[in-house]
Amino acid sequence: MDSLGRPDTFTIRRATSVAEVAAAEYLFDGPVRAEWAERFLTAGGHHLFLAYDGGEPTPVGFVSGVETTHPDKGTEMLLYELAVAEPYRRRGLGRALVRRLDTLARERGCYGMWVLIDTGNDVALATYRSAGGKDDGSCSVVTWDFT
């Protein structure tokens, strides 16, 4: 149910084409580049789920994940990015997308799933906690920018 008590009619489907990803471009941080979208969709261990409201053709949310494997740890899922269009927030869609990726990770034998969150992003933290995640409060991120 949404905040007005109406039943939500969301469906979540795996993205399989560049056109589907391009239709969700407004949800991403920047423009979708066809060659990058194709590479993501065809790479093993890369996953992108799109959420739709009823029969609407434009996605209203997405979650992406990448499996990472290490010789002494096995495979885990990195929740790479989550986005929900503004009018669809606070209706459980973000949680549903995270749970869909969680289900896939378990099906694929991952031993866990993790996500990086910007400091102070309480909304993201609440979403991930509501989907079963736990904040261990112990991470710092060091980055390299190759551009």
TrEMBL record:
One Gene Ontology MF term: acyltransferase activity
Residue stretches making up the N-acetyltransferase domain: 10-147
Organism expressing this protein natively: Streptomyces hokutonensis
Protein name per UniProt: GNAT family N-acetyltransferase
Keywords from the UniProt entry: Acyltransferase, Transferase
Gene3D superfamilies given in the database record: 3.40.630.30
Entry-linked InterPro entries: Acyl_CoA_acyltransferase (IPR016181), GNAT_dom (IPR000182), YpeA/RimI_acetyltransf (IPR050680)
Hydrolase found in the keyword field: no
Family annotation (Pfam families): Acetyltransf_1 (PF00583)
Enzyme Commission number: 2.3.-.-
Entry keyword annotation includes Zinc-finger: no
